[in-house]
Amino acid sequence: MNETECIRRAQQGDAAAIRELYQKYGPRVHAVVRRLAGEDALAEDWAQEAWVRAFRALPNFRGESRFSTWLYRIAVNSALHGRRWRERRVSREAPLPEGPFEPGGRSDPVALRLSLQRALDALPDGMRQIIVLHDVEGFTHDEIGAQLGIAAGTSKSQLFKARGRMRELLQSGRSAHRALGMEAT
Amino acid sequence: MTHLRLEAIARIADETPTAEEAAHLESCEPCRRELEEMREDIHTLSLLPDMAPVPEAWGALERRLADEGLLRVKPRYSFDNVNRVMQVAATVLVFAGGALIGRISASSSVETDPVATSLQQATSNPNVRLASSGGVAAAPASLEEAAALLRQTEEPYFNALTRYAELATGSPVGDPVARLAALQAIVNTTAAALSQAPTDPVVNGYHLTALAQRDAALKQVAAATGERWY
User: Fold this and answer.
1) What is the pTM of this model?
2) Do the Cβ atoms of B50 and A31 come within 8 Å?
3) Tens of pLDDT along B54-82?
């Protein structure tokens, strides 16, 4: 079944078509939601919420943009909504990362990705959100500003602070690693 | 030497540095390395892989979508299927009614009617006692016995039904072409039922019997018109 047909059938509530869309885009949706959430348990709730919102809105999808673009925007909005919901209830402190970063050093791309993911998780929510939206998902500052209700310049300055904080986390991890005599490179 | 702040390096990763910053980078190896690593981090962030949801996530989502009426699960029995089932049920009802009527009418001429005699012979089998004769059908002990019982009862039933039609109309069964069409309709119905329950011995039995009767009618029509039936 091609995607257009799959979407058409999913708009009518066809279970097989809905599952096909979920299987195709599930990992992508989960990734963006997980990175915005910063933790697994929250990500599962938010991802489910994102999909429910998407399938509620699907009958109104007219194909004016790519389905994937439309879906990811819903996922991001859903996660941002979830984050705001949580902020009203929980004052989340950025926990210090457990264990050293970059166990394999920067020359190991897999280790570097793991280190970056852990550093993202350790960032405060606001900083993580900006980095995920800009550096991971590729949104522009204008788009981020529109989604968050802030000026593009504010988005930009927050991004630079967040990047700086992430570098500090990576460096502190590397220093801890060196202190333990565990540097691999 | 005072190094560039990380926030400034983060900005320079995207934008052109000021002249002062450019001059500092020219002369400061640690700041250049920091800028290179930050650019590498940003590039790597853009390549982070997708993350598969936990396998249970779909089940939970599916239930929620179903609860909200967003998921249309194909019913096990669609309306068309129900219609077929009803057709089969109607056919069975007609068969059973015919058997009862045939039995009643045959009982009045059991001594002279060969059809009734065959029915009586079939029902004289201790395992085959029709409800209309006042007995209770013995429950077959196995699938094979049930199939055998079915076969034993089918032929006299059809013969009785034919005889009943003859007696009711005062002549041999009327329009053979109309009968052939009716039998074909039954074959179509039982074939549809068979597609739903291909291993059901009862449905198989009805289908085979309907096929046999349809073929017999076809031969009869062919003989009457002088055409070959095959």
Assistant:
1) 0.58
2) yes
3) 999 999 999 999 999 998 866 544 444 55
